[in-house]
Amino acid sequence: MAFREYKIGARLFGLALGGSMMITLYMPSLNIVEVASTETGLRKGLSYGRVGGFSVEDPFLQGEGKPKTVMLSQDPSTGQAIEPVYAYVYEAGTPFTSSIRHPRILGAGVKDLSLEQGRIGEANQASGAVFVVAEGSWNGESVSYIENATATRNWSPDAVLSAAGDANTRYIGSGKIMFVREGCWWCHTLLPEETQDWQVFGVPPRLGDYNSESPTAFGSDRKAPDLLHVGSRNSSREWMMMHFFNPRLVQPHSIMPRYDYLWGDNDAAGNRIDFVQWRNEYNAYVSGARVYPPEVPEPAADSEARYLIDFVLSLK
Amino acid sequence: MAWKFDKILHSLTDDAQNQKARQLWEAESLGGITEDNNRLPQAVVWLLGLTIITAFLITFPLWGQRPSAAIYQAYVAEMDSPEVAAASDDQARVQAIVNKVKAQGGQYEALQERHPVEMDDLRMIKDQVIELQNAGVDLEEYTVVGNRVVLANFEGNIKADGTKQRKQPWWDKGYTIDIFYVIYFCVAVLIAIKRLPNFAWQPDHHKGH
Amino acid sequence: MLKYLFARNEDIPHGTSAVYFGISSIMWFVIGTGLGSFNAAKLAFPDFVTGSELFSFGHMRQVHVMAVIFGWISMAFAMAMMYITPALGNTRLWSEKLGVWNCFLWNFGLSLALTLLWAGMSSGREYSDFPWFIDLVILFGIVAPLGLNVWMTVLKRRTQGIYTTNWFFLAGTFMVFIVLLVGNTPEYFQLTGLTEAYLTWWFAHNVLGLWITPVAAAIAYYTIPKITGNPLYSHRIGHLHFWSVVVFYSTPAAHHLMSAPLPEWLKSFASVEGVLILVPAIAFVSNLLLTMTGKWHYFVDNVETKFTITGVLLAIPLNMQGGFQQTRAINWYIHGTGWIVAHAHLALLGFSTFLEGAAVYYGLQTILRRKLYSLALANFHFWFLLIGFSIYWISMTIAGLIQGAGKIYEVPYIDVVIAEHPYMIARWVGGTMVFTGNCVWLYNMWMTARAGTVIPAGRLPHELAYER
Predict the structure, then answer these.
(1) Most exposed among A228, B204, C69, C463, judged by the fewest C-beta atoms under 10 Å?
(2) Is residue A87 within 8 Å of residue A72, measured between CB atoms?
(3) B83: Cα within 13 Å, side-chain hemisphere
(4) Buried b (16+ CB within 10 A) or exposed e, C428-454
């Protein structure tokens, strides 16, 4: 590498960049690939579905092609009462979450149990499947794994959905899409920090809490409370509903935008929502001309507002 | 590619090639821009050395450590003392505990200050801490997160015997890689600039233009 | 522009693509800072424009970021490359036609990409918000042709040497290609979990560190010696700068996730490397400031030097912050607060924008052979940019310290929001000043092209600045 002599320099450049990528990409991947999924990780992956951002099946992020999460208290094939469980319902054609398609990312132990006892290898995307999270033991340690209930218990997606009913169905996967599309994560982080943050916002995530989730949307610029455990702090649907419609209804100093447009045209009863009148009445309330704020309309069962509330409340 | 090693701090290139370099340096015009051959100013060299030393010293986790169960051991021990029982509310109880523990001093004083705790959380971790104490394990290997005491996990840090590192490490393989990396960089850059004509020579830009 | 898309390469005048890139970049700067000002208004006054999905903060924030990174900064880089690279090789651009097409596809592709992003089509990954098919368009339709043109121009140069600026241009175009290719693998292959989280920040760190920082610095290596007429102070420090960028700037990606679950040794490694980004900074600043020796009056009476040296000086606080804020000792306090927002604007709006601004000012005058329409308006632009940025930076730094204190001392979050409010208003005022300055700049450059005094052959634009 003498003056104005570039051959060695070019090779050194390649060596330097290659070395840097080897240390920053290859070496950490050896550690990350070993991480076994925790129960939280399994539940998140199963309820969010394949991708939480742009995907071919849902290019405009409308919340399509996502699984539904239901709370079951009766066995849909036998009709008997059972201990309530969360079941993750992938209707026919709904893309499976990554960990079902590539069980390897579940990590040692979890993968083995899910394949051998949970029979997730038998799940078929074209005909749909229902998954639950089960407890097992591997090398003497208690481990959560994924169980393909369609194979082990003969639960079909349709039967599970009708057994649970809409009141027990949560659109968590579609709600994650809303969370990403509406940019909630530009202000609300999903990452209580490891050193000093947990007193208010709860336990920092563990290493295995994310297998099969994408995007993780940690957020980097916290202008609002962390939401990783918001469902544990506040589980009121009513509060969430008012807060999304107009945050100033429940928190006068909030700088959060209004998300009233997620309600769509009609409310839960099918009546048209008159946003203009609502705003006029709200303005009258703010100016003191009204004593009470106007009622917030109940979101329709298939509205984006409902998806988002389902997702936020699922963050325990 | 003619190397010369008799005066390595002077120039690593032999005189004939240096002569060619000088001629080229003075003759060429790169869009009307010329370059001088000044040495790295000594202040800059010192600053670089200082930066490298500082880089290591400041990154050791003296601050920003996660709270281990060990720092709350003394708190738990004081929870049943008469002063605490006499306190009127939770805030006063925590204050009483903190005051008593502070008076005792000890190696965890700074960490205790950095990781304040609420009475509610303290009640929840009390039994867990006592249980671990009775089991005779090293409390420094456990982290307190919220109201739970969990086995600490400094991910990816494996000890020589294959077990996982559980205490806040002050040195790990990341720093070792750093040392090699810095040495490799310094050597490469030293060679690159010592292959140039010695800095005592400056190009005369009026010759070629 | 359209008439040159299908012209023969020889018929396209020298510098055409640089002019197109220059004017485009200024327009994108106006758009990007306009969006920024609008977003800031929404943070200060949450009920400003409500009820519409398209004008909600969550839909517009990323459009602002992408417009300034891919519109303003990267296009200003392309502009600089299109005229500086051939000038330093005493040759012409390898293909003006490719440059014109590059500029056309860039504007078209970016408009489309931002429209889709605005509509909510997002990958949900910060700094790589575009969905994967747009990433591929950027990679092969924008970055690859630009790199090809730069590389071929240097390979076909008519000098033996390659000047420092061109080292960075070559390395930067190559590295940004690799970074885009590798950093978006989570989207191409649907990688999940910590792999996705880490690669998101690997990309975000490296696109700033291996593209924006070195290329912006490279521009200063051209403008200062060119305008002052001084030789570059030291070829040797240039080596130190170049190699330390490649070695130390490409490694600290994990320091963006110091408090997230990642291998602990990786954080230790990244943290040391993160402090070592001071090495290229020291080299860069010392080399440029020493080059100014004897010509410091240019800092006062030459507008391009004023921009460049301001950018160089801003590199000092930028790297002091950047180097130390990521260590465990400091990161726990300021992570995720407005401090980081201030730092990001110091990098992009402070340091790099001032360097690129000089390149666009100087390049357009040189290629068009027309003197700046109004020096007064240029000075107005400089001061609005600098004061607006300073207001922004100071207010967000203070807001960040408040947030950090709130985090450590467990203050109810709403009290932090209330305490921050005055600084949110200040941020909006600062951002709006920057936007106003840029509107003036666009007018000034437009009038320069239309009505600037013609520069006689053999003279340089800055020599005539004070002549009528």
Answers:
(1) B204
(2) yes
(3) 12
(4) bbbbbbbbbbbbbbebbbeebeeebee
The CA radius of gyration of chain B, in Å to the nearest whole number, is: 30
* Residues B115, C251: Cα–Cα separation, whole Å: 31
Q: What is the mean pLDDT of residues C236-245?
A: 96
Q: Report residue C47 CA to chain centroid gap.
A: 31
Q: Examine the pLDDT at A208 and tell me if it is beyond 70.
A: yes
What is the average per-residue pLDDT within A56-83? 93
Of the listed ranges A70-74, A202-206, C28-32, the one predicted with least confidence: A202-206
Model confidence pLDDT, tens digit, residues A233-272 = 999 999 999 999 999 999 999 999 999 999 999 999 999 9
152-171 of C, contacting A, C-beta below 8 A: 160-162, 171
Pick from C162, C265, C286: CB nearest B41: C286
Please tell me if residue A121 touches chain B, with a CB cutoff of 8 Å. no
Cβ within 8 Å of A, C 176-205: 178, 182, 186-187, 190-198, 200, 202
The verdict on B99 touching C (C-beta cutoff 8 Å) is no
**A7 touching B (Cβ < 8 Å):** no
Burial class (CB in 10 A: 0-12, 13-18, 19+), C182: middle
In chain A, where the domains are located:
39-173, 177-314
CB atoms B185 and C278 under 8 Å: no
| CA–CA distance, C217 with C229 (Å, rounded to integer) | 18
C456 to B41, B43, C213, C365, C368: CA distances (angstroms)? 40, 44, 35, 12, 11
DSSP label at A24?
I
- Give how far Cα B175 sits from Cα of A32, A177, A261, B92, B122, Å: 19, 40, 51, 44, 36
Instruction: Render pLDDT for C260-307 as a digit per residue (tens, 0 to 9).
Output: 889 889 999 999 999 999 999 999 999 999 999 999 999 999 999 999
Is 0.90 exceeded by the ipTM? yes
Q: Which domains does chain C have, with CATH numbers?
A: 12-450 (1.20.210.10)
CA-based torsion, A284, A286, A288, A292: positive or negative: positive
C-alpha span between B77 and B130 (Å, rounded):
9
Residue A206 to residue B65, Cβ atoms within 8 A? no
Neighbouring-strand partners of residue B33: B30
| Interchain CB contact of B17 with A (< 8 Å) | yes
B146 pLDDT higher than 80 = no
Whether A14 has a pLDDT exceeding 60, the answer reads yes
3-class DSSP assignment, residue B151: strand
**Are B192 and A1 an interchain contact pair (Cβ–Cβ within 8 Å)?**
yes
What angle, rounded to 10 degrees, do the helices at C164-183 and C193-207 form?
160
C43-95 pLDDT, tens digit per residue, is 999 999 988 889 999 999 999 999 999 999 999 999 999 999 999 999 999 99
Among A231, A247, A224, CA closest to A296: A247
Rg of chain C over Cα atoms, rounded to whole angstroms, equals 22
Is the CB of A195 inside 8 Å of chain B's CB atoms? yes
Token couple for B84: 């605490």
Which tokens go with C192? Answer: 């999940």
Instruction: Give the architecture (CATH level 2) of A177-314.
Output: Orthogonal Bundle (1.10)
For residue A88, the cross-strand partners are A69, A131
Q: Tell me the Ramachandran region of residue A308: left when phi exceeds 0, alpha when psi lies from -120 to 50, beta otherwise.
A: alpha
Helix (H) or strand (E) holding A137: strand A129-138
What tens digit of pLDDT does each residue of A161-181 get? 999 999 999 999 999 999 999
Computed from CA positions of residues C104, C106, C108, C109, in that sequence, does the dihedral angle turn out positive or negative?
positive
In DSSP notation, C258-301 reads TTSSS-HHHHHHHHHHHHTTHHHHHHHHHHHHHHTTT-THHHHH
